[in-house]
Amino acid sequence: MTISTSSTWTGMVPVDDTALAVTDTGGPGIPVVYLNGQFATQGYWRRVIAELGADFRHISYDERARGRKSKRSADYSFEAAVRDVDAVLAARGVDQAMVVAWSYGAVVGAHWANRNPERALGAVLVDGAFPYDWLDEAVEQRIRKLFRRLNLFMPLLRPTGLTPRMNAEQMANSNIELGRLSRESELGPVLDAIAVPVRYVVASGASLGSRGDEQERIRAGLDAATARNPHIRIAAKVTSNHGAILKKDFRAVAEAVREVAALRHGHDQQSV
After folding, report:
1. Which residues, 6 or more positions from 153, have their beta carbon under 8 angstroms from its beta carbon?
2. Is the pTM of this model over 0.90?
3. Were 113 and a residue from 9, 68, 71, 120 both cysteine, which residue would form a disulfide, CB within 3.0 to 4.6 Å?
């Protein structure tokens, strides 16, 4: 049973050896939990949240060592990220929620929706969770080199919350783990088993660290999943690139959320 609140709450939610900064707008609307990009913060969702307004209850949070307030941890694994979804929802008294997730968060959201078919009201996955074998030894070395270079100036930005309080090795390991989990043999079966409505909003062009048409080839990995699972569809293919999609195409994301909510409403009426 979901406990409704009437006003916005902000605070820290303890989980494992850390604590996460959480914002919950409250209200009687459909609960939506937002899952961020790998090193992003809940602030990225502000335009989507404003566009959707009071028809939804918006729950956002900063993952471990992200943002200005969430604490460091000894565990930055993918499984820890999935556990954190449950911890945040439990702390806010929410039993069922829609997942709206971008990039790394989309893979977390896909796994959570697959593992919790009775609790997931649906999912909107934004330019992430594409089953494709993009990680090999050369790419792994490229990732490690990239984060070593980024780590030269990241300490200057950490007090602002714009970069995570993780070292170069931790960030690289997280990205490499994502590559392994994104392989068709790993992510494909997860998507195949999802039994709730899923809508993708897909970006265009390159993203940080990608080369040439690499990102578009990764996105094409979704085609087989949509062909196999009728619950999964592409709601929109937008012109924004990966990094700008939540800023420039937030309306397309919000429209996909409304579509999933309408599908859920129709399902609930049929069940009565």
Report:
1. none
2. yes
3. 120
